[in-house]
Amino acid sequence: MNTLSWQAAREAAHQAGLDAILPTRRQKPADTDGLTLAAPLTALTDLPAFPTSSVDGYAVRGTGPWKLTGRVLAGETPPPLAEGCAVEVATGAMVPDGLEAIIRLEDAKLEGGTVSGAARPNPEWREVGEEATAGQVLLPAGVEISPTVIGLAAAAGHDTLEVRPRPRAAVLVFGDELATEGVPGRGRVRDALGPLLPPMLRHVGAAPVPGFSPRGPIEDTLDSHVAALRAALDDADIVCTTGGTMQGPVDHLHAALEALGAEYVVDSVAVRPGFPMLLAALPGERFVVGLPGNPQSAVIALVSLVVPLIAGLTGRRLRQLPRVKAGVDIPGRGTDTHLALVRLGKYGSVVPSSHRGSAMLRGLAQSEGFAVIEPGKDAKEGDTVLFLPIPGDHR
Ligand SMILES: Nc1nc2c(c(=O)[nH]1)N[C@H]1C(S)=C(S)[C@@H](COP(=O)(O)OP(=O)(O)OC[C@H]3O[C@@H](n4cnc5c(N)ncnc54)[C@H](O)[C@@H]3O)O[C@H]1N2
Ligand code: MOO
């Protein structure tokens, strides 16, 4: 077993994704929210494409008063403006060639077909190419497509975009002790990860495989593990398993991976909690991420391995983590990285959560993320530390 540092594990997961980068496809911009730009987004024309009035008013040429000769509405192409003349222009309309100023409606007087008034000091129209010139790169490849990116693509003239899709993900739950309904007791624990993981995977940019709700609990035999993994790998680019990452008496994950010809990209990480997490590459550019059974450790494995893997598969960079201030001293965990469960307080400072045991969900459900305490270090109150958010809608 080759234990990697937490940073090295994230980078290895990202590189493994890049090595198996998903093929591109073309889609209408409106259907691309959450996908990734596979090619730079360029301006297909100058932006604005024509000189555009930024106010409702009168475009004028020469010294006033001016003779009103017509009106240009948005969407029309005006003839050139003659000396001593004015045309009424709407916001967003193309301004006529030859204009020297635009007088706002509220600053103008119209009497008997004659316009008078004074223009404000700054030009009230946008010049061609002010925002971008034709062919200019507006965004590089590898950018996550957000609603504002969709708007920019449409504004720049694109009818389709070259994108990488969301990786397809499936969840397999291991553990005979798990119950999928009812109150826990008598040695049986409710499966918390089966319900937690699909929405979290959606939040980090994966697409849960249609029709594949979490499968499990999978029977604690090697044959059942192999069969379940094989079936899930047929459908998904990434299969997340839960539990069985240690090599306990009924832990079959490692043996099942071996039977399927897997190669480890990551086999345990020097991080607490979450140490036994793993990432294996399987034939056909498929991946299995072994999330430990303790729920907090499973979430840590997801943000540590699945998020970088998805970034690689979609051609994104590994995201730079923001920094926050430690609101109190936060101890390290010796030679391991400590991902300390924290709540975000006022002014961007973090404090450790209560009920933060790795088997608990109570603290996890009330926390915004993890403070990254580097190996061999403690964070003192006031130190800045990296912050790893817990995926969810409210952040
Ligand atoms: N001898 C050692 N034992 C353990 C070590 C160790 O270093 N030496 N490490 C501990 C750590 S750290 C973790 S994390 C766990 C990892 O265990 P597994 O991934 O093999 O998971 P399980 O043994 O199957 O389960 C652990 C724990 O989590 C509960 N669990 C499992 N699945 C779910 C689920 N879907 N929903 C809710 N809870 C779940 C399970 O009941 C166990 O309590 O190993 C430690 N052991
Ligand atoms: O590292 Mo385990 O993953 O502490 O709970």
UniProtKB/TrEMBL annotation:
Pfam families assigned to the protein according to its UniProt record, in alphabetical order: MoCF_biosynth (PF00994), MoeA_C (PF03454), MoeA_N (PF03453)
Cofactors, names only: Mg(2+)
SUPFAM superfamilies: MoeA C-terminal domain-like, MoeA N-terminal region -like, Molybdenum cofactor biosynthesis proteins
Entry keywords, A to Z: Magnesium, Metal-binding, Molybdenum, Molybdenum cofactor biosynthesis, Transferase
EC top class named in words: transferase
One Gene Ontology MF term: molybdopterin molybdotransferase activity
Cellular component, GO annotation: cytosol
Pathway given in the UniProt record: Cofactor biosynthesis; molybdopterin biosynthesis
Record keyword S-adenosyl-L-methionine present: no
Start and end residues of each MoaB/Mog domain: 170-312
Function recorded in the entry: Catalyzes the insertion of molybdate into adenylated molybdopterin with the concomitant release of AMP.
Family designation: Belongs to the MoeA family.
The protein's name: Molybdopterin molybdenumtransferase
